[in-house]
């Protein structure tokens, strides 16, 4: 087994092998680790207060992302949570109804038309008009609405499995990147690479190419045109390597589902993604028969029967007519870029076609760009699809993984499941094997910014059959007093709102799918 200084390996067990340290951003002596310092450079040293030391990459709870337009090499960006503001909340209003009973009254308010009108079935000499000024003869006065929302943080962490990302600090030096690197990898293998020094036989995963369609062996037979072509249909047609610029390396759902792109760094929420919520809307009333402010706000307020019947039709003597609500929200996108660090992805283009098992540690995770497993059948590599393994057949792997990824621990154990997930570096070793994050979220009303909608009662001041929007429509005393109890003579009963469906929101960051394998029978990792 050859370990190269500076290479990063991913391990599915809960310790760090000999000659490796976890990628935790620690500082090391430039004198003691002279070659590693030169290999990494200063891209991960964000504090230059101590010129005698340098820092290694800090991958704890950060996804590696190929530098591009959104992130630079060594840069740390993104977040695990976001808080929605008013402009990011989808613009919306609630359809609000006056709750009425057009039958004989009773215990249940059965009719809730969008616009309910109070008929003027009394003589015109008895004033029952609406006014915008309260007086001692008024009882109904406008509407109020409670706030909904608490600006609770929204967890945007993409689906992942916690594992150990470790960097080699002692091993073989890549002195001349132009020389052959013995045993570093096999064709189609992808590595997370913390340096701009790219060894011979490997290239950056930036979508470029240097092999042609006519090349039916080597890389041509392994990845073919999965990642696209250039100069298609010409003698110079070339096949492209994977392009991880600004993307994560997400596990394919099936082995053949590699090279699928998707995701985005921000989302514009729609009304359908609003969480199910309503605002408690109340009618302002005055039961004191004086000109005092309308201080009583019962949830269900009823107008007595002697005020007249209700109708869903507007007509000339109509006085009370429906409710309007203002829109709240905006069209601002929410940044959902996950915590990440700019690192290179490199792919092996000249190496083993059928890799020997002794170039991997047992329990090591391998990234593979191909949708073919035929080259790996004798390499003791298994897909990370959460499948179970017989303990008797795989005792070494079981001794490393145990039941961290599932299993009964007596006859079988499970491999990690990286389908539609990403491996993520632990913050401490006890986290190994923990699944977390999600690719979709469903908002709750607690995630919304605290807000309400200006609600107006539609009234008819002129008694001509039209509706006029006034901030506070006042119903005169001659229409009857209000009660907070239902009875056979009750016809107006509070207000209710429609709600929303709360559809799920896709929060996957930009990704490119590949296959993840685990070494089931390689070199047993020595402990530090």
UniProtKB/TrEMBL annotation:
InterPro entries attached to this UniProt entry: Phage_tail_collar_dom, Phage_tail_collar_dom_sf
Phage tail collar domain sequence ranges: 6-64, 188-248, 363-423
Residue stretches in coiled coil: none
Source organism, top-level taxon: Bacteria
Gene3D superfamilies for this protein: Phage tail collar domain
SUPFAM superfamilies per UniProt: Receptor-binding domain of short tail fibre protein gp12 (SSF88874)
Protein name per UniProt: Microcystin-dependent protein
Organism from which the protein derives: Tenacibaculum adriaticum
